[in-house]
């Protein structure tokens, strides 16, 4: 009887494994497709941003009014709740209008962008200042030069994002896009004779 019990246990385990395999396959396929789509979108956005900056010489290209940038300095690292330390990733959104207190990213004539706070409006132009700076910026900002208002800050993520926008980073991202499709086959989750 001991041998019979063991055999029936093993057959129950095998039956459970065979029943679980379709669930694992389905979940794996859903996760694979989702992951691949997300990484493909990130890759496409990165390629667009690189082309827009390199070929079309746009300082801060946006997609449907949304953009991102890496803050390199600590000029916005102040005491305000929405202050931004250096090496942060920021997301901006173009607005119809901007007001005093908004943190904005704007283009300068020096092929660079700046992210500072609006502290006043003079003659239709914005007076800006970094939260960590003692004085306001020398030049006034035209409304057309504003890329957008900062709506999200991810502190410390700047280095990672800068690495992704390099050629090697894009290559790694491309490999990651293909990995979810190939890894299940490598580990035998999909058998060729079981494919529909």
What does this structure look like?
It is a single chain. This protein is of the alpha+beta class. 41% of the residues lie in helices and 21% in strands. The chain contains three helices and six strands, in the order αββββββαα. A six-stranded antiparallel beta sheet has the order 1-2-6-3-4-5, with helices on one face. Helix 1 (2-54) runs antiparallel to helix 3. It is elongated and about 65 Å long. The model is unreliable at 1-11 and 192-196 (pLDDT under 50).
List the helices and strands and how they pair.
Layout: H1 2-54, E1 66-71, E2 88-93, E3 103-107, E4 113-122, E5 125-129, E6 146-154, H2 158-164, H3 167-186
Antiparallel strand pairs: 1-2, 2-6, 3-4, 3-6, 4-5
Helix pairs in contact: 1-3
Could you provide a short overview of the structure?
With 196 residues, this protein is of the alpha+beta class. It has helices at 2-54, 158-164, 167-186, and strands at 66-71, 88-93, 103-107, 113-122, 125-129, 146-154.
């Amino acid at each position: 009887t001991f041998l019979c019990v063991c055999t029936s246990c093993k057959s129950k385990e095998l039956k459970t494994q065979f029943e679980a395999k379709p669930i694992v396959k389905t979940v794996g396929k859903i996760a694979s497709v989702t992951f691949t789509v997300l990484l493909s979108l990130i890759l496409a956005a990165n390629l667009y941003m690189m082309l827009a900056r390199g070929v079309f010489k746009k300082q801060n290209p946006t997609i449907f009014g949304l953009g991102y940038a890496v803050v390199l300095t600590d000029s916005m690292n102040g005491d305000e709740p929405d202050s931004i330390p250096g090496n942060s990733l920021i997301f901006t959104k173009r607005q119809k209008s901007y007001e005093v207190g908004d943190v904005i990213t704007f283009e300068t004539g020096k092929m660079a962008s700046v992210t500072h706070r609006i502290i006043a409006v003079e003659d239709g132009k914005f007076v800006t200042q970094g939260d960590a700076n003692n004085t306001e910026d020398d030049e006034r900002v035209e409304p057309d030069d504003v890329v957008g208002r900062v709506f999200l800050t991810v502190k410390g993520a700047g280095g990672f994002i800068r690495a992704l926008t390099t050629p090697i980073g894009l290559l790694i991202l491309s490999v990651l896009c293909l990995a979810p499709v190939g890894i299940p086959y490598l580990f035998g989750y999909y058998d060729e004779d079981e494919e529909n």
